[in-house]
Every structure is written in C-alpha cells, then in structure tokens.
Automatic annotation (TrEMBL):
Cellular location(s): Cytoplasm
Protein's name in the database: Phosphoenolpyruvate carboxykinase (ATP)
Binding positions (ATP): 196, 215, 231-239, 280, 317, 442
Stated role: Involved in the gluconeogenesis. Catalyzes the conversion of oxaloacetate (OAA) to phosphoenolpyruvate (PEP) through direct phosphoryl transfer between the nucleoside triphosphate and OAA.
GO cellular component, one term: cytosol
Family recorded in the similarity comment: Belongs to the phosphoenolpyruvate carboxykinase (ATP) family.
Amino acid sequence: MSLTASAPLADLGIKTATIHLNPGVDDLYAHATRLGEGVQAACGPLTVRTNKTGRSPKDRFIVEDDLTRDKVWWGGFNTPISGAVFDRLLDKMTRYAEGKELFVQQVYAGTDPRYRIGCRMVTEMAYHSLFIHNMFVRPTPAELADFHEDWTVLNIPSFRADPTLDGVRSDTFIIMNFTRRMIIAGGTQYAGENKKGIFGVLNFLLPDQGVMPMHCSANVGDDGDVALFFGLSGTGKTTLSADPSRHLIGDDEHGWTDSGIFNFEGGCYAKVIKLNPEAEPDIYRTTRTYGTVLENVVLDAGGQPDLNDGSLTENTRSAYPISQIPNVQPGSLGGHPRNVVFLTADAFGVLPPISRLSAEQTMYQFISGFTAKIPGTEDGVTEPSPTFSTCFGAPFMPRHPGEYARLLAQKVQDSGARVWLVNTGWTGGMYGTGQRMSIAHTRRLIHAALSGELDGATFEREPHFGLEIPTDVQGIPAGVLNPRDAWADPQAYDETARKLARMFRENFRRFEDGVDPAVTASMPDPDAAPQG
Ligand code: ATP
Ligand code: MN
C-alpha cells in the first residue's frame, strides 16, 4: 500500500489528510470492509449499499464561465452555477477533508492516447476508489511514473451542502468547472457519478477536436467490422455488446475519431437485476468474481449475491474491469463502424424489432432519443411513459443536440455505416398485454444486420414511422418482425402507433428550428393510413 503525506493534494489546500495513492484491489477490499462500506460476498465481489441508488441529474451543475458560456446548451439538464459558488463549496470541502482518509487514483479517461485525459480521482470512499480502478483506463507503470493530471474529481459523499447557504438545490451536488478542470461532488454515494461526471467533460471537450463523443457500447467482429449500440438506460447497450461471437470494445461511452472508435473507459457497469445466467453468461460470471464491485445487490443467508432480490433497488449493478469479459478487443480501439444500432425499449410495443433507417431518420431518431418506461407503482398509472432524451443521453451532453447530430451524420456518411433501429422492449402488445422481446431474438436480428444478411432482404414500409422492416429473417418466427402482426388486436396496434407518433411529433417541436427540413419531413405521421 502506498501511504503518503498530503502532498498529492497540496494544490487543493488539503494538508493533514491521510492519502492512499493508487491502492490496488486487495488494499481497497481491506479499507472498504474496515470502513464499514461493504462486505465481501462468499464468491468474491465487494458488495456495497449506497444512500442513493441512481444518479442525481437535478443536482448536476456546470460553472458558467468564459469557456462554457456560449458553448453549453443551457437549460434542461445543463444548469449553470457561478464560479463563486463552486469556490466556496470547494473551500468548505477541503476544510472538511482535513484529518480524514482519502483515496486517490490516477487513471485515464480514454484509450486513445491522442484524446485521453489524465484524471486524479479523489474519493472519501474506498469502494469508489475500487469502482474507479475497475471502470477507468489503468495506466501502465511507465505511464504512472510520468502521469499528467488534466482533471481532478473530489467526491466526498458524507459532505452535505446546505442549500440555504451554498447556492445549490439540495444537500447533494455534482459541479463541473472547466476553467479549474475540476468536478466536486457531495451527498451521494452512487458510484456512477464518478464516471458520468468525466463523461460529461469529454462530451463537452471532444467536439472541438472533431471527435464525436457517444453514449453507446461497441464491439467488433473477427474481420474488423465495428458496431455501435446507442440507447438510453436499460435498452441493452451492456447486454448486447457482450456477445460471445464478437470482441467487446466497451459498454457505455466511446469517441469516434478520424481513425475509428475508442472507449472512454476500462471497465463495465452492468445492471444485474434478475440476470439470467443462460442468456447473459459473461456478465453473470462477473457477479461471482473477486475484484468486482456489486452495488446494492442483496446477499443471501449464505453470503452469496441474490440477483433476484430488488428490495434495495431495481438498479443493482456490477462494476468490473473489461478484462473480466472473455473475448475483449485489445486496447479497446476499433476502426470506423460498419453498423450503428439505435436501441430502444419501447414499452408501447409499437416499434419493430428491427428496421433500417435512412440518413434523415437517423438524425431524427438520434435527436429524439426515445425509449419508454414501464408504468411505475403509482396508483392508476397503467400505461408506459415515453422518455425522449436527446442523443440517447441528454443528462451527459453539455452542447446543443444539433451539434452532436451533425457530427454523427457526417461520420456515418463518411464511413458509409448502415443504421438500424432495434426495439428491445415489448412485442405482441404494450407492457401488461405483450411481453419483452427475447434476448435470443434480438441477438439473432442484430447478427443478421451486422453480417450483411439483411442487405439482400426484402423490406416492407411501416406507415406511421416510415420504418423499413425486413419481411423474413432466418431463425425468427413469422409474425414477429412486423409488430402489427404480433398484436392480437391490429386496431389496438394502429391506435397505439398513432398515439406514439403524436408523442414523437410533440417532443420534436423544440428541435424543428435547428434541423434540416428533410429531417423534420421524416417525422412520424399519426394520420397515415394503417397497414392491412
Ligand atoms: P445503462 O445505460 O443504464 O448502463 P444499458 O443500455 O447498458 O443501460 P443493460 O444494462 O444492457 O442496459 O440493460 C438491459 C436490461 O434489459 C438487462 O437487464 C437485460 O437482461 C434486459 N433485457 C430483456 N430483454 C432484452 C432484450 N431483448 N435485449 C436486451 N436486453 C434485454
Ligand atoms: Mn450499460
């Protein structure tokens, strides 16, 4: 273990804290259990509980300064805050940290040396330090000897802001400061904030270098064909990128440069609720491996993870270094994508299991960023609720969606990549009547798209969204490919399709001014004559 004086944090004004610099896995297990953060499950993983079980997007701020003022798309998830508020909170935090224990990891965000940033990740919790060790790109000993820190993250969950004095919304805050190249966070133990904070930084910085930052997973076939999978939370980025027949590049955050794809991360963060060991063997294995962090997974009486137990949250997670997945792509780099897949978990059961998108539909779907949540537990709510999150990741994208959409369109055009919309959600009816698409069918359809099998297929045009649906795919039973055929009641399908088309149009109004008229013209048409 490397114990040093506070010198590594002297620039922050922290003088008397005990600093653990770049501790390894064994040490972090020891610290986390000593500090009462969690326990080791019988099969190996460090298992922890957190006060918040998801991100806190409403408590995320960006300091408004000369660097951000004209480049950030303010409003929505991008809430401005003053540099003075940041400075005061940082000052309070550093005084709070005096005399405490802190963990520091020096890691990279980005596997491409041209674009990576060196991150100094300072955390109060040992388990966050292990999470960061697993999830970021670990420097080689030579790189570590000469490590350049571009950004600092200071994350102290037990530090609570006072909203009446500190200029923030609650006791929780995540604030990005581009001038000082720092993120400070307090109030939340959810480890995902560490990685999504730096994701936001790269999403802001990279477009100026001509790099498209993306909320997507990526893998590559034996002949070098790269595929990207965009999608909001729960749509299948992690699940579908871990494909035994392809090499994993990464499961969540990537950049597209003039030479291809690079991962921002060195690990994966998989949802593990009710994970099926047969359908997802690779991810399942990580939940029984030493070194993994299991967040909010309940242990049974024998000390083994019970993945069916959602009593703490449905958002149970496994965080593991990418090397735990067999068949990874060395270096987490790939060439230009041959296929781009937009994943959506449509709980309305309207969108086809797979369809092919035109260039205009690509822009339209990317800017819309649709998925649908199943109804919650509130009384009387029986219908799914639509989520439109632009760029399939609104909470992480500081710039105007049009900027990202134009970059993507250019990259897709230059590379000639095919673009597909894949519904991993409901079929045969909306949530309640229908059922979730089988993972086996989704995988088969994706393989058909990636292998070029669909290039020679016959397509029919679905009227409301104008989507091109293959009429026949080997291994997929009849009546699955066209969602209208999958519903017992075709009229009910038409009505739901019209309703969803109206929701798309309503959402897109705020973007119409900023996009090419051809994109707007590709909008869904609720008044189209139904099929059949
Ligand atoms: P996040 O951004 O939160 O990491 P994600 O896009 O990576 O989300 P996954 O973690 O892959 O999403 O979650 C998809 C979930 O849906 C998994 O629990 C998976 O088992 C389940 N699932 C059910 N049916 C399908 C399907 N047909 N395709 C993909 N996933 C499915
Ligand atoms: Mn994921």
